[in-house]
Amino acid sequence: MRFGIGDNGRVFPGLKGEAFVLDEKADRWVSRGIVMKNCWPYDPPVKMANGNYITGGQDRDGLPVVAISHGEDFSQWDSVLIPWHPGLRPSFAETTVWAEGDHVIALIRGGGNVAWVSESFDGGRNWSVAGPSNYPVPRAKAFLGKLSTGQLYIVSNFRNRDTLVIATGKPGELSVSKMFRIRHGKSEAPRFPGHAKSKQWSYPYASEHDGKLYVVYSIGKEDCGLTVIPVAGLIQQGTK
User: Fold this and answer.
1) Long-range contacts of 214-218 (CB under 8 A, 24+ apart)
2) Three-state SS at 221
3) In whole angstroms, how far apart are CA 6 and each of 16, 38, 39?
4) Which of 142, 110, 124 is nearest to 48 (CA)?
């Protein structure tokens, strides 16, 4: 992603994504040009029933947005803004999504110490107005995903950035009902000054492999932390 030159924007003017493909023979990266506009994505693309992929992010004004591929062609993405209630007061509205068929859930960094949620039932083309959920999270980015067990999960901060948690649901349910603590307490202090830097565990991302969930996160906005969680330890009883 790059920004700073181009269309006006409150937070990220000129926001756009350029794709690079590795030329293995020449051992160099080759540009495929601009493939995405007005979306800074935060998720790995999730495939929907219609064959398109979807990812969540924020736009050049810091508002919630998704990007939708043209099928398997990742050189073309359409950006679709998510409508929001004025009470949301979006600010760095980092958005994470999960799709079940063409039903897509968007979890948005909002206000009021809870995550905000919007839903689409047509593959991300139209969205409900984003509103507050009952899931507690401060103004901080979250990550939404699904385990191989069929459980939805959310990795996020809880109350503040001193605590990082994972919440899981039961197999087959599109909700979470149990929470586990990943990190708690003050992180190491940042070594260098910078905007909005402090002691924190934040900006999580997760990927499952070989029975384990690998959770990566920022430490003080300077270092990367890694916590490995056995998926078996997250299983809740339910019906698939």
Assistant:
1) 215/155, 215/166, 215/182, 217/155, 217/164, 217/182, 217/183
2) coil
3) 9, 11, 14
4) 124
Q: Which residue is it, tokens 């599109």?
A: 174
Query: What is the C-alpha separation between 47 and 105, in angstroms, rounded?
Result: 13
pTM: 0.93
Rounded-to-integer distance, Cα 46 and Cα 111, Å = 26
CA distances from 207 to 140, 190, 232 (A): 19, 26, 15
Residue matched to tokens 């736009």: 59
Which pLDDT band, with edges at 50, 70 and 90, does 237 fall under? low
CA distances from 130 to 99, 125, 137, 167, 189 (A): 17, 14, 15, 21, 35
DSSP state of 131: E
Residue 206's φ and ψ, nearest 5 degrees, are -140, 150
166-206 tens-digit pLDDT: 999 999 999 999 999 999 999 999 999 998 899 999 999 99
CB 167 within 8 A of CB 156: yes
> Rg of the Cα trace of the chain?
18
Class of domain 44-234: mainly beta
Strands 103-108 and 114-120: antiparallel
Q: Could you tell me the end-to-end alpha-carbon distance of the chain, in angstroms, rounded to an integer?
A: 38
120 has which bridge partners?
104
- Residue for token pair 């007061």: 89
